[in-house]
Amino acid sequence: MDLDLRRESLRLAALLQERVSRVRLDRVLWQQLQRKANRLTAAYEPALSIVRILADSRKVTLKATNDELPLPGFLFDMNRFFQALISRFLHGHLTGWEVRDEVGLRGMICFDDESTVDWMPPTVRPDFVVTGGARVVAILDAKYRDLWQHRLPREMLYQLALYAGAHPRRIAAILYPTMTEAAEETRLIVREPVHGRCISQICLRPVKIRRLHELVMQPPSASNDWQCQNYARWLALGKN
Question: Using one digit for the tens of pLDDT, what is the confidence trace for 58-109?
């Protein structure tokens, strides 16, 4: 622990001890706090949550427990964390292709030649574009939502349908985290409503967290590198 932080903590504890009596931080106390919580104590909920995490000596774990402590979203943005995790894994192990993060697909949306507006249309910007030379190999978006357990929101569907339009084969994929070992890649077909012709495909591709954890935590070796490369290739390209 930082010595200055420790010294300041002890000083504050000594000041508080003059007016505040000590209590035991156990399950009974947390239950009492939860029952007595109201709008007047709402402002203290983030601080109390951090105190409980520290008191319970908890950390994020992949092992199932019967006494789980939820980690609230104010600690950090899990969407950005998951995206950064996938980015690092793909950059480190997807050999033979280039991974580009949040690259703008310029020119995909534009005004026609006769338009007189003076503002630029928005730029489509997926999380990852995988290229091989000048060829687009995959368009991927990381979503922190277990789509094996929960429905795909329509906003995600519309977003990926738009991304698929930029792929030569009209296909885009969502990478989502799951703890379900049986989860498999599934695909949605976007069809032309009159004749039923396939317009594009949207892949829902699970990132199995336990498997990813095993891969990144194993010691470096030729065999382990090969496993990581295979998994990175599957995340980028799927079953094809």
Answer: 544 545 455 545 555 555 678 888 999 999 999 999 999 999 998 887 777 7
Domain that residue 212 falls in: 78-237
Give one word for 156, left, alpha or beta, with left for phi > 0 and alpha for psi -120 to 50.
Answer: alpha
pLDDT at 72: 54
Mean pLDDT calculated for residue range 194-209: 92
Q: Is 35 part of a structural domain of the chain?
A: yes
Eight-state DSSP code of residue 27: H
Contact 235, 205 (CB under 8 A): yes
pLDDT for 130: 95
Domain check: are 52 and 137 in the same one?
Answer: no
Regarding whether 117 and 37 lie in a shared domain, the answer is no
Q: What would the DSSP string read from start to end of 138-168?
A: EEEEE--S-TTTSPPPHHHHHHHHHHHTTST
pTM (predicted TM-score): 0.68
Specify if 168 maps to a domain. yes
- Specify whether 35 is located in the same domain as 153: no
Number of domains in the chain: 2
Q: For residue 125, what are the contacts with CB-CB under 8 A and spacing of at least 6? A: 102, 103, 104, 105
Does 170 reside within a domain?
yes
